[in-house]
Each structure stands twice: as C-alpha cells, then as structure tokens.
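Sequence in, structure out.
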Amino acid sequence: MALTQSNPFPLGTKAPEFKLSDQVSGKVLSLKELKSEKATVIAFICNHCPYVKHINAGLVKLANRYMAKGVSFIAINSNDPNRYPEDSPDRMAEFARENSYPFPYLFDEDQKVAKAYDAACTPEFYLFDGDLLLVYHGQMDDSRPNSGIPVTGEDLALALDLTLSGKSVPTRQKPGIGCGIKWSIDRS
C-alpha cells in the first residue's frame, strides 16, 4: 500500500455537482438532493484500504453526532473494481451494512467525480458550508493504523463546529493521507 496525500483543492471552491448510484438504497442520488443547508461532508473512502478500515468506527460515530445537528454526510468510492474487486458495488452495500453507515455510500463508476474533486486518496474529507463552498479539506484526525493515536475525528469535528457556529475555519489544514485512489487503467 503506497501512502498517498490529498491534492490541494482551493478553499472557497463550489462543490462540483454529481449524480451517483447509492449502493445501499439502489437509488441514483445527486449532491443537490443530499446536501444540507448547514454543512455537507463528502468523504472519499473504499472498502479495502487499511486507513479507511482504521477510522471507520470513528467516522460512523462522528457522522451520527453531526447528522443529528443537520449536517449531511456523503461517502464516495471511486476505485476501479476490476482491479480491486473488494471495492465492487456489491461489496460496497455489504460493507456499508456491516459498518452501520448512516449515510449514502455512492459508487463513482467512471471516476469523473473523483477527478472533479481532484481526490487522490482514501480517506479524504471535504467540508462544504451551507452554500456548498469548501471550508475544509483534509484528514479526519492524526490517527493512522498502528500509530497508537486514538481515532477522535478532532480535525473534521473542529471544522464542523466552527462552520455550524458561523465562524471561519482556519486555512492551515492537514492533508488527507491514505491509500491512493485506484484509477482505471484506461484513465483519460
């Protein structure tokens, strides 16, 4: 597993629109339908990545806490399932149920959404305000597999708390770090 860091994505950028298939409900859902008037978190994740597996329970806990405050959480898997069958749509539905995901788990089959967000790794988090303008992009917290640091979600939680209270999120943000997105071989 090659350690990959998220690419810069300018703060203030409007969230690129998308319509993707939710592997739990079977419905095609758009950002317009899923966004919150308060804040929206978009997480690029997948099933097989040890970094995602490491933070999964903490992500679910964080999502449940902030969804109760009106925040929308959206998870997207952009990995090529031909190269990584564990990340296939069927396995995504199973993985979401096993991990009690309270949010939709969308499949980016043609990888166009990952490209629009310049996503590079899993897990990678984007927080948009009520106007869908980017206020935070990076890691959930400093915890990594075998680091001995507990999963707290503190970086993302701080950004959420500031956004919900109408305050500015500091512009100095730590990038997401994890497994690189598994691009299809015929990537254009």
